[in-house]
Amino acid sequence: MSDPGREMYALMERLYPICRSLTGDGVRQTLDLIEEQIPLERTEVPSGTQVYDWTLPREWNIREAWLAGPDGERIVDFADSNLHVLGYSVPVRKRLTLAELREHLFSDPERPDVTPYRTSYHNENWGFCLPHRQLEALAEGEYEAVIDSTLADGFVTYAECLLPGESEDEILLSTYICHPSLCNDNLSGIVLLTALAARLRDRQRNYSYRFLFSPATIGPLTWLSRNEKRVHRVKHGLVAACVGDPGPLTYKRSRRGNAEIDRTVEEVVLAASGEVRDFTPLGGDERQFCSPGFDLPVGVLTRTPQDEFPGYHSSADDFDLVRPEHLADSFAAYLAVFELLESGAHEGNETYVNLNPKGEPQLGRRGLYRAVGGGSFTEGALLWVLNLSDGRNDLKAIAKRAGLPFSEIREAADQLLAAGLLVASEERVP
Ligand code: ZN
């Protein structure tokens, strides 16, 4: 791949017109295009399947939709932009007054010139989305609304690309595939993961890499429910979203907060003058991966996070906002993260809490003091680890401050762990 930014952009241009949603043929067509570049294994799970607390939805498909005014002119047409139809609209074909129609028109008064992206997944409804300025100018009279759609039992569709490595330990990369014609949120994530998988395919890999393309929320939930027994293989994970805008790289930590993926991505993002944020249970697919029952080491690497860039969830999230050079920069950042993970640069670099913080623990009684002549670490290493293990310093930071090799600090921590004097900070009971 000579110019990854351009290639990702070109794929985005092909994916853009497709009407994606939680389910349906738009999702399958999207996977068809991805599959031209990387191998995919698809899974189709029937509507109505129970997945944890959720019931998988019916499948939505749409062929055409338009709204005609009193003079017969089409006001909005699905053929021009799939954003014009409320996602999951049930079929309709009727004539109605402007007042009746208004119940089914969606606009954004704060951004009067854009068409907003709206869905109604959980309440049966139909509607059209249009710029507020256009809505305000509609004349009284009789309108004709036509939506030729089906909402029926079908499937939830998702796909995986697994690139096996030397180890069965996996790096999970996840993105959602349920947004229609929107570039940054979410085509940028789709084309980035596709390009990364294509690049990693011909590389020597220690880790196995799993790329998951699935509809938001129900996709990760369904995948987790079908892979619960193997989910421990996920050693590191990233949710890719909003990676094509001009904003700086932004990393949102995993729920664990100090997992190897967190330290690794922080190194890359901070070197690029990006921003690092703590975990919150709001956002995208990390809400499922980082739910307390899984608590996977999965963070989110974006540029400007969703709902923070102008144009979010509207027709202004387009090819002016997303540019090849930003996609290429995100691509390079992800590769840099993989390189650090593969090199083990942060392996074993944990953060601990000293369980005996009042005064020094008596090391001699535990066979640690002066009993270390044969070991490769010094007593000093023990004291440094004990003193700085307050949940805020990882072992790398301690090694730096102590002026000792990381391996010595790591071994000292192992001895202290074995003696019950330390605990990993994420396991600490508050
Ligand atoms: Zn979104």
Topology:
Blueprint: H1 4-15, H2 25-35, E1 41-46, E2 50-51, E3 54-55, E4 59-68, E5 74-77, E6 92-97, H3 98-102, E7 105-106, E8 128-129, H4 132-136, E9 142-152, E10 155-163, E11 170-176, H5 183-201, E12 208-214, H6 218-226, E13 234-240, E14 250-252, H7 260-271, E15 275-277, H8 286-289, E16 298-302, H9 324-343, E17 351-354, H10 379-388, E18 390-394, H11 395-402, H12 406-418, E19 422-424
Parallel strand pairs: 7-8, 11-12, 11-13, 13-16, 14-15
Antiparallel strand pairs: 1-10, 2-3, 4-5, 4-9, 6-9, 10-12, 14-16, 17-18, 17-19
Helix pairs in contact: 1-5, 1-9, 5-9, 7-9, 10-11, 10-12, 11-12
The structure holds zinc ion.
Zinc ion (ZN) is lined by residues 179, 185, 306, 313.
Can you characterise this structure?
The chain has twelve helices and 19 strands. It is of the alpha/beta class. It has three domains: 4-57 and 155-344, Aminopeptidase (3-Layer(aba) Sandwich), CATH 3.40.630.10; 59-152, Domain of unknown function DUF2172 (Glucose Oxidase, domain 1), CATH 3.50.30.90; 351-427, Winged helix-like DNA-binding domain superfamily/Winged helix DNA-binding domain (Arc Repressor Mutant, subunit A). It has helices at residues 4-15, 25-35, 98-102, 132-136, 183-201, 218-226, 260-271, 286-289, 324-343, 379-388, 395-402, 406-418; strands spanning 41-46, 50-51, 54-55, 59-68, 74-77, 92-97, 105-106, 128-129, 142-152, 155-163, 170-176, 208-214, 234-240, 250-252, 275-277, 298-302, 351-354, 390-394, 422-424. The strands form five sheets. An eight-stranded mixed β-sheet has the order 1-10-12-11-13-16-14-15, sandwiched between helices. It has a four-stranded antiparallel β-sheet with strand order 5-4-9-6. The longest helix is centred in the last third of the chain and has 20 residues, at 324-343. Helix 5 crosses helix 9 (324-343) and helix 11 crosses helix 12 (406-418). It binds zinc ion.
